[in-house]
Structure formats: structure tokens, C-alpha cells
Design brief:
Layout: E1 13-15, H1 39-42, E2 45-47, E3 51-53, E4 56-57, E5 61-63, E6 67-74, H2 80-83, E7 87-91, E8 95-102, E9 106-109, E10 113-119, E11 125-127, H3 135-150, E12 166-171, E13 183-189, H4 190-194, E14 199-205, E15 211-217, E16 220-222, E17 227-228, H5 235-238, E18 241-244, E19 250-252, E20 258-259, E21 261-271, E22 275-276, E23 279-286, E24 290-291, E25 298-300, H6 302-319
Parallel strand pairs: 2-5, 2-23, 3-6, 3-23, 4-6, 5-7, 6-8, 7-9, 8-10, 9-11, 12-14, 13-15, 14-17, 15-18, 16-19, 18-21, 19-21, 20-22, 21-23, 22-24
Antiparallel strand pairs: 1-25
Length: 320
């Protein structure tokens, strides 16, 4: 099996590619957790605190607090044999769900569990109080990722419809040279994109971009207008766009279908429409499905940044 590919971007980015030879709709094959720089490539859903769910997750879910709900399914689009030894559902606290269907892999939980669990993929249930101690490091990394992304220099601009209602097109203009070549960055207001009565449709044009970062400002995001269509409705874009809601504390996607990875480390997310892409939030009320693909675009890596800064200091001292 091939290995995940990585390349430095300004000494701080890692490109996380697909595992060669594994056709799993954008899900990376299982790897050692400690060596994985892209948590959004490993987990379809990460909720630092509590989660409530009455729907299904096509990939892996990691909940830092408690998991509640009527019924939920996990690993529904994963290869049962490949993911059999993996934690497909990891919960730091207790699980209080009437019925859980595990279509691949196992459950690892730190607290008590009530309700019925069906291991259709041949997995098992493991009780381990230490599982709760794993989330703080992941939370810290994703907070760092979000803060770094928000500070990136915008390379692309967005024309917001005014006057008559119309489409909203993200025309990506990536950096053309240097270590960040290929990355297109947008800085947008959440209100102007998601709560704008003039926005009828949203689409994206990648052009020569290999990955797109959309930094979204606003503490409260309420998606009331517009639908994602065209290129936003295909898996290539969904796996390579990251929406960084860096300051949002509340996000409600209503019943609209969302495309692309969601990074919102401070937010409680509520959604009633399908999300196609990885999700990392503070907490979630999941009322609809979370679909693959997982995120395979650019993601900043604290480890890579620290290593390269240290390398630069050593080289500088040697020159002196």
C-alpha cells in the first residue's frame, strides 16, 4: 500500500494525498493516529464536546463528550475488512443512543453505554477510560489549523450579487509561484454568503487551483438563502475545499445540502440537510447524514512549522 504524500508549503503546510491503491471515496486508509497531520482526512466527524445524532455517518466519528440520540449509523461507506481493527466510533464520555448500527469497525468509549449496538461489520466494543484524554491534543491542533488558515493572504475575491438576485461564483485564483502555489484563499463574510436574499446559487471554478480555503467571518451563521450547485456538487471539489468558520459560535445550515469540509472549532453546528465533507466542530446536533469524501486538500501542520522554524534557526546560527 502506498503512503500519504506530504510537501511543505511555506514550511507550514502539509499536502495530504490519497492512499495509493485504496478506492474509498476519498477516505484515507487507517494510519497511526500520532503521525497523521490531517485529522479531517481521518475522521468524517469530530466534535470536541457533545453530539446528538439521529442519522448516519459514512465515515469515522470522534466525539469528545457524550453521544445521545434515537438511532445512528457509522462507517456505512467504509471497507469492512480494511477498517475492521479501527475505532470507527470513538466517544470520550457516555453513549446514550437507542440503537447504533456499526457497518464497519469498532466502538471505543470512555463512559457508560446504554441502548442496542449492532456490529454488522464484525467489530467490537471497547471500554477505556483513557479515551477521553485523546481529544485535547486533537482539539488543540484543529484550533491551531483554523487560526493559521484565517491569517493566510487572500488570493481570490468574490463578487456578491447586489440589486437583482443572482449566482455567487467562487472563481479561484491560486498563488502562481512560491511555496503556496496552487492554493486559492477567499476571505468572506458569513452574512453576505449564507444570509443574503440576493444569493440564489453558489458554484466554484477551480481553474488551476489544487485546493481552496474559504475563511468565513461572523459569530452566528444562519444559512437562509442559496444552494450549492455545479462543481460544488462533485466529490473533487468537496474533498479539496475547506470552509474555515474561524470565529463562529453558532452555525445552522437548516435543510440545505452543504459541500466541502467544515472547520469550526468554536461552534455548535445544527444541520438538517446532508453535509458532503469532513466536519470538525465544538459540538453538533446531527439531524441528517454526513457523507464522504473526507478532506484531502492543504492543511497546516504545527509539527512541520516547528521543525522548519528550528531548522532555520540552526542554519542561521551556523552561517553566523
Amino acid at each position: 500500500m502506498g503512503r500519504t504524500c506530504a510537501r511543505g508549503v511555506s514550511g507550514r503546510f502539509m499536502i495530504v494525498g490519497m492512499i495509493a491503491g485504496v478506492a474509498l471515496l476519498g477516505v484515507n486508509a487507517p494510519t497511526a493516529e500520532a503521525s497523521t497531520p490531517n485529522l479531517l482526512g481521518e475522521w468524517s466527524l469530530i466534535a470536541f464536546e457533545n453530539a446528538s445524532s439521529n442519522s448516519n455517518n459514512q465515515g469515522r466519528a470522534w466525539i469528545g463528550g457524550n453521544l445521545t440520540g434515537s438511532a445512528s449509523d457509522y462507517g456505512t461507506r467504509l471497507n469492512r475488512n480494511l477498517f475492521r481493527p479501527q475505532d470507527i466510533l470513538r466517544v470520550g464520555g457516555s453513549i446514550q443512543v437507542s440503537n447504533i448500527n456499526m457497518e464497519a469497525g469498532s466502538i471505543r468509549h470512555g463512559g457508560s453505554i446504554t441502548g442496542n449496538t449492532n456490529f454488522n461489520g464484525g467489530g467490537q466494543r471497547f471500554a477505556a477510560s483513557s479515551v477521553a484524554s485523546l481529544m485535547p491534543a486533537a482539539r488543540g491542533q484543529l484550533l491551531w489549523n483554523s487560526n493559521f488558515l484565517r491569517q493566510m493572504t487572500a488570493t481570490s475575491t468574490l463578487t456578491i450579487p447586489t440589486g437583482q438576485p443572482g449566482p455567487l461564483n467562487f472563481n479561484a485564483v491560486p498563488a502562481s509561484s512560491g511555496p503556496s502555489a496552487g492554493v486559492a484563499v477567499f476571505n468572506v463574510s458569513g452574512a453576505s454568503v449564507f444570509n443574503n436574499s440576493r444569493v440564489q446559487q453558489m458554484d466554484v471554478n477551480f481553474g488551476t487551483a489544487t485546493s481552496i480555503v474559504i475563511n468565513v467571518s461572523g459569530t452566528t451563521i444562519n444559512w437562509t438563502n442559496g444552494n450549492m450547485i455545479g462543481n460544488l456538487a462533485n466529490d473533487f471539489a468537496r474533498a479539496r475545499i475547506i470552509w474555515n468558520f474561524f470565529e463562529a459560535t453558532s452555525i445552522n445550515l437548516q435543510g440545505r445540502a452543504f459541500s466541502g469540509a467544515i472547520l469550526a472549532p468554536l461552534a455548535h453546528l445544527t444541520h438538517e440537510g446532508v453535509i458532503s465533507g469532513s466536519v470538525a466542530v465544538k459540538s453538533i446536533d446531527q439531524r441528517s447524514e454526513i457523507h464522504l469524501p473526507s478532506f484531502v486538500g492543504y492543511i497546516p501542520s504545527p509539527g512541520a512549522a516547528a521543525a522548519l522554524v528550528m531548522g532555520g534557526l540552526i542554519a542561521s546560527r551556523r552561517r553566523r
